[in-house]
Amino acid sequence: MAGLGYSVLPAGRGESAVAFIIRAGTRTDEPAPGIRRDRLLTAADTRDGRIVIDRFQVAAGRDLEVAVEPGALAWLQVLSGNAALAGMELTPDIMSRLPAPFAGVFRARTSCDLLLSRVPDALRFGHARGNGAHAAKSFDWTREPVLQSMHDDRKRIYVATRTLFGTSALKGEIIIYPPGATCPAHHHEGAEHYQYVVRGAGIAVIDGVQRPLGAGDILYNLENEQHWFRNDGDEDFVFVEYFVPGTCRTVWAPGADICEWLPTGADIMGREPSRHIPRHSHGDPTPL
Question: Which of 12, 31, 165, 225 is the most exposed place for a label (fewest CB within 10 A)?
Answer without folding.
Answer: 31
